[in-house]
Amino acid sequence: MRAFLKSLEGCFQLKPHTTTIGRHPGADIVLQSAGVADHHAALEFAPSDNSFILQDFNSLHGTFVNGCQVQNAAVKVSPGDILRFGAGGASFQLVVDGATQVRMGCCCPGKGGWGSPGKEGVLFPREGC
Predict the structure, then answer these.
(1) With 50 as the cut, is the pLDDT of residue 121 above it?
(2) How much is the average pLDDT of 99-118?
(3) Total domains present in the chain
(4) Which domain holds residue 116?
(5) pLDDT at position 110 over 90
């Protein structure tokens, strides 16, 4: 299975297991937007249920899924979801070969979005904010 992050600027193929995202030259996907941290986030494929988990590394300017902020948390993302790294960064759609691209709604418990500084866990999107 091949998966990509697709934006207006181009398309990045994801690694088979874990893809790191950030400004650091050692990241798998290097983004130069001002709001992107050196080690911003990672996107991991979970073969047990063919899903993807997005982990924010407590970035200063946040990681967003379908417009909802993920802060120092891991969230399950699906093909069609829109990801953004940093407050003013480009948007990327998660695209998986052979998968139906259905964008899920977001789950924004509280006003701040998913998670909070110092809190870790896996939160799953549900319909409606």
Answers:
(1) no
(2) 49
(3) 1
(4) 3-123
(5) no
**Hey, what are 79's tokens?**
């093909």
Kindly state whether residue 118 falls inside one of the protein's structural domains.
Answer: yes
129 in any annotated domain: no
Model pLDDT for residues 7-32, shown as the tens digit of each residue: 987 899 999 999 999 999 999 999 99
In a domain, 68, yes or no: yes
Looking up residue 108, the CATH number of its domain turns out to be 2.60.200.20
Residue 128 lies inside a defined structural domain of this protein: no
Give the chain as a DSSP string.
Answer: --EEEEETTEEEEPPSSEEEEESSTTSSEE---TT--TT-EEEEEETTTTEEEEEE---SS-EEETTEEE-S-EEEE-TT-EEEESTTPPEEEEEETTS----------STT-B-BTTB--EE---S--
Q: What is the pTM of this model?
A: 0.77
d(CA 2, CA 126): 25
**How far apart are the two ends of the chain, measured CA to CA in Å?**
31
